[in-house]
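The record is given unchanged here:
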Amino acid sequence: MSLCLAALAGVLAATVVLQAGWYDASAVRPHFQFVHTLIERGLQQSVRFHARNIVVPLSPEGASARGSVVFRRHCEQCHGGPGVAMGVIGLSMQPVPGPLADAGRRWKTREMYWITANGIKMSGMPAWRFHLSEQEIWDVVAFLGVLPAMTPLEYAAIEKPEAAPRPQPAPAAVRAPDRERGRLALTQFACQSCHHIPGVTGPLSFVGPNLDGLAQRSFIAGKLPTTEENLVKWIRTPHQLKPGTAMPQLGVPERDAHDMAAYLLQATR
């Protein structure tokens, strides 16, 4: 009984602190050490549990070399590398992303794959499985395995590609759209940051139109008849369909766009 009362008192105290605005949510004030340690421990256990059944494939020849290029393009800005500091974004994040030179010592291969593919909530670490191919993710994991032994000179010798859009993958085989995957894809392309989308957790944003009831509207963007095929085109190439639109071109692959369109037209009926 006393334990229940203590727990209730803790919840009430936390509610008062949050509602009063006393909690400092700024990135210039890190978590208390005990909070950081608690979150870190929870993260470790979560990754180990969810990655437990992943089967690690044989690493093909040249995987770590290819992964090094992907790492420099996408990961270095937040994590840095041997002799290279993380970028301004990484330096100012809370919690700090930190270097990955010891990742291969702290995590098993399947766990590094799970983290890279699925990201980590409330950390800034994105889920790369919607932005990199399966092979690219495994290549990065292979590179993380050799990173601890890499010298700054060896790292500096890795080609650093220009920041340019990746070539789009070849069209996927025809298949039925996966609405649940589409709901997840909407979050991975940050659609909820501008739109209210039924069934998708996000901020109360008014940047773009509310997508609730989209299936009942006659036109998409006031121009295209509301069909799944037109919605796919709008998601992928808005600037071609309506020059000057504020809708950004996100580089959404065709498969993801079909899944997203199917979800939006079902969830907003």
